[in-house]
Write a structure and sequence with these properties.
By secondary structure, the chain is α+β, with helices and mostly antiparallel strands. It has one domain. It has 5 helices and 6 strands. It has helices at 28-38, 40-55, 67-77, 98-105, 108-111, and strands at 12-13, 16-17, 115-122, 128-136, 141-146, 152-157. The protein is globular and about 50 Å long. The N and C termini lie far apart (40 Å).
Length: 167
């Protein structure tokens, strides 16, 4: 699969670095979090933008992939397959909640990023199953390490208050 694009290793918007220091990462996460909590207009806009996305009917599009892979992915994400009869996908222990994931993923809109750790476990069927898309909240990300080619190398986090030195 070919890469479509890549990120610039600097915070450049329109060729100019952000000149408001409070809006430079990582300080910006505190400003945006405060706006999301305290500004009614920001909250209304976020609801107006995200609710139609969250209320959409999501499906896995096979797009020519082998049926067994499509079924595997659809089961792990608890989503129906495009073209198959609609119906609620049963909740199974150890599977991702698409609705919960989507709600967190949409935080990329105000923050500009939202990372998730993919957690897999072997299943009784001998296959690896996606059991968690663990959010790495923007306020915990202290550094984004970008490779020379623009690819993501890693992120660095700080522990949330009350979770430091926990086993």
């Amino acid at each position: 699969m070919a890469e479509i694009g890549h990120a610039s290793p600097r915070s450049v918007v329109g060729g100019v670095m952000e000149d408001n220091w409070e809006l430079r990462f990582p300080q910006s996460t505190r400003v945006y979090a405060k706006m999301l909590r305290q500004d009614a207009q920001v909250q209304s806009i976020m609801r107006a933008v995200t609710l139609p996305i969250r209320r959409s009917t999501w499906r896995v599009d096979p797009n020519g992939a082998p049926a067994e892979i499509v079924e595997h992915v659809a089961a792990d994400l608890r989503l129906p397959v495009l073209g198959q009869e609609k119906g609620a996908v049963p909740r199974r222990r150890g599977r991702v909640s698409w609705d919960a994931h989507l709600q967190k993923a949409l935080l990329a809109l105000p923050y500009g990023h939202m990372f998730f750790e993919q957690v897999y476990q072997p299943g009784d069927d001998g296959l690896e199953h996606l059991v968690k898309l663990a959010p790495r909240l923007p306020g915990t990300v202290s550094k984004i390490n970008v490779a020379r080619d623009g690819g993501l190398e890693s992120i660095e986090q700080v522990a949330l208050e009350g979770q430091r030195d926990r086993p």
